[in-house]
Amino acid sequence: MASIFDDISINTLIGKGTSISGNIHINGFVRVDGDIDGNLYTDGNIIIGESARIRGNIKGKSILITGGIILGDINASEGVSLLSESIVIGDILSPKVQIEDRATFHGRCISIKDSETYKTESEQYLQSKAIKEKVLLS
Prior knowledge:
Elements: E1 12-14, E2 19-21, E3 24-26, E4 30-32, E5 35-37, E6 40-42, E7 46-48, E8 53-55, E9 58-65, E10 69-71, E11 74-82, E12 87-89, E13 92-93, E14 97-99, E15 104-106, E16 109-110, H1 115-137
Protein backbone atom coordinates (compact mmCIF):
# COMPACT_ATOMS: atom_id res chain seq x y z
CA MET A 1 0.00 0.00 0.00
CA ALA A 2 2.85 2.44 0.57
CA SER A 3 3.40 2.68 -3.20
CA ILE A 4 0.28 4.85 -3.60
CA PHE A 5 2.17 7.59 -1.76
CA ASP A 6 5.25 7.51 -4.01
CA ASP A 7 4.51 10.11 -6.66
CA ILE A 8 2.17 12.73 -5.23
CA SER A 9 2.54 16.16 -3.75
CA ILE A 10 1.05 17.21 -0.43
CA ASN A 11 -1.74 19.79 -0.79
CA THR A 12 -2.11 20.52 2.94
CA LEU A 13 0.37 20.21 5.81
CA ILE A 14 -0.67 20.51 9.44
CA GLY A 15 2.73 20.93 11.02
CA LYS A 16 4.16 19.91 14.37
CA GLY A 17 3.16 22.41 17.04
CA THR A 18 -0.05 23.33 15.21
CA SER A 19 -3.29 22.80 17.10
CA ILE A 20 -6.69 22.82 15.41
CA SER A 21 -10.06 22.58 17.10
CA GLY A 22 -13.01 21.77 14.84
CA ASN A 23 -13.81 19.66 11.81
CA ILE A 24 -11.58 19.93 8.75
CA HIS A 25 -12.64 19.31 5.13
CA ILE A 26 -9.71 19.27 2.69
CA ASN A 27 -9.32 18.54 -1.02
CA GLY A 28 -6.33 16.42 -1.94
CA PHE A 29 -3.40 14.92 -0.06
CA VAL A 30 -2.95 15.81 3.62
CA ARG A 31 -0.09 15.28 6.08
CA VAL A 32 -0.74 15.76 9.79
CA ASP A 33 2.08 16.23 12.30
CA GLY A 34 0.16 18.49 14.69
CA ASP A 35 -2.89 18.16 16.93
CA ILE A 36 -6.51 18.03 15.75
CA ASP A 37 -9.51 18.02 18.05
CA GLY A 38 -12.19 17.30 15.47
CA ASN A 39 -12.89 15.21 12.39
CA LEU A 40 -10.66 15.18 9.30
CA TYR A 41 -12.22 14.54 5.88
CA THR A 42 -10.53 14.51 2.49
CA ASP A 43 -11.06 13.02 -0.96
CA GLY A 44 -7.34 12.27 -1.14
CA ASN A 45 -4.68 10.40 0.79
CA ILE A 46 -3.61 11.09 4.37
CA ILE A 47 -0.32 10.61 6.20
CA ILE A 48 -0.42 10.80 9.99
CA GLY A 49 3.05 11.59 11.33
CA GLU A 50 4.84 10.48 14.49
CA SER A 51 3.98 13.60 16.48
CA ALA A 52 0.30 13.81 15.42
CA ARG A 53 -2.48 13.63 17.99
CA ILE A 54 -6.01 13.38 16.60
CA ARG A 55 -9.19 13.17 18.63
CA GLY A 56 -11.85 12.67 15.97
CA ASN A 57 -12.81 10.57 13.00
CA ILE A 58 -10.74 10.40 9.82
CA LYS A 59 -12.05 9.73 6.33
CA GLY A 60 -9.97 9.60 3.17
CA LYS A 61 -8.85 7.55 0.21
CA SER A 62 -5.78 5.84 1.72
CA ILE A 63 -4.42 6.49 5.18
CA LEU A 64 -0.84 5.85 6.28
CA ILE A 65 -0.26 6.16 10.02
CA THR A 66 3.48 6.37 10.66
CA GLY A 67 3.07 7.14 14.35
CA GLY A 68 1.05 9.37 16.60
CA ILE A 69 -2.22 8.72 18.35
CA ILE A 70 -5.72 8.62 16.89
CA LEU A 71 -8.75 8.49 19.17
CA GLY A 72 -11.53 8.01 16.63
CA ASP A 73 -12.76 5.95 13.73
CA ILE A 74 -10.94 5.58 10.41
CA ASN A 75 -12.76 5.12 7.10
CA ALA A 76 -10.58 4.68 4.00
CA SER A 77 -11.96 3.74 0.60
CA GLU A 78 -8.69 2.13 -0.57
CA GLY A 79 -6.54 1.11 2.40
CA VAL A 80 -5.11 1.76 5.87
CA SER A 81 -1.57 1.06 7.11
CA LEU A 82 -0.60 1.28 10.78
CA LEU A 83 3.16 1.33 11.05
CA SER A 84 4.97 0.38 14.25
CA GLU A 85 4.62 2.87 17.11
CA SER A 86 1.24 4.13 15.83
CA ILE A 87 -1.78 3.99 18.13
CA VAL A 88 -5.40 3.81 16.99
CA ILE A 89 -8.24 3.57 19.47
CA GLY A 90 -11.35 3.37 17.33
CA ASP A 91 -12.86 1.39 14.49
CA ILE A 92 -11.35 0.87 11.03
CA LEU A 93 -13.37 0.44 7.83
CA SER A 94 -11.35 -0.24 4.69
CA PRO A 95 -11.04 -2.94 2.04
CA LYS A 96 -7.31 -3.32 2.88
CA VAL A 97 -5.75 -3.02 6.34
CA GLN A 98 -2.11 -3.55 7.27
CA ILE A 99 -0.97 -3.47 10.90
CA GLU A 100 2.75 -3.78 11.65
CA ASP A 101 4.35 -5.20 14.78
CA ARG A 102 4.38 -2.82 17.75
CA ALA A 103 1.41 -0.84 16.39
CA THR A 104 -1.51 -0.58 18.81
CA PHE A 105 -5.07 -1.01 17.59
CA HIS A 106 -8.08 -1.22 19.88
CA GLY A 107 -11.43 -1.31 18.12
CA ARG A 108 -13.43 -3.09 15.45
CA CYS A 109 -12.21 -3.64 11.94
CA ILE A 110 -14.21 -4.27 8.79
CA SER A 111 -11.87 -5.23 5.97
CA ILE A 112 -13.25 -7.41 3.18
CA LYS A 113 -11.62 -7.90 -0.22
CA ASP A 114 -14.85 -8.50 -2.15
CA SER A 115 -16.15 -5.00 -2.92
CA GLU A 116 -19.87 -5.85 -2.81
CA THR A 117 -19.60 -7.67 0.51
CA TYR A 118 -17.44 -4.87 1.93
CA LYS A 119 -19.94 -2.24 0.82
CA THR A 120 -22.86 -4.12 2.38
CA GLU A 121 -21.07 -4.83 5.67
CA SER A 122 -19.69 -1.30 6.05
CA GLU A 123 -23.08 0.29 5.31
CA GLN A 124 -24.77 -1.94 7.90
CA TYR A 125 -22.09 -1.06 10.45
CA LEU A 126 -22.35 2.68 9.79
CA GLN A 127 -26.17 2.58 10.05
CA SER A 128 -25.96 0.64 13.32
CA LYS A 129 -23.42 3.10 14.72
CA ALA A 130 -25.55 6.10 13.69
CA ILE A 131 -28.59 4.61 15.43
CA LYS A 132 -26.57 3.96 18.61
CA GLU A 133 -25.21 7.53 18.62
CA LYS A 134 -28.71 8.97 18.10
CA VAL A 135 -30.05 6.92 21.01
CA LEU A 136 -27.18 8.05 23.25
CA LEU A 137 -27.82 11.72 22.38
CA SER A 138 -31.53 11.58 23.15
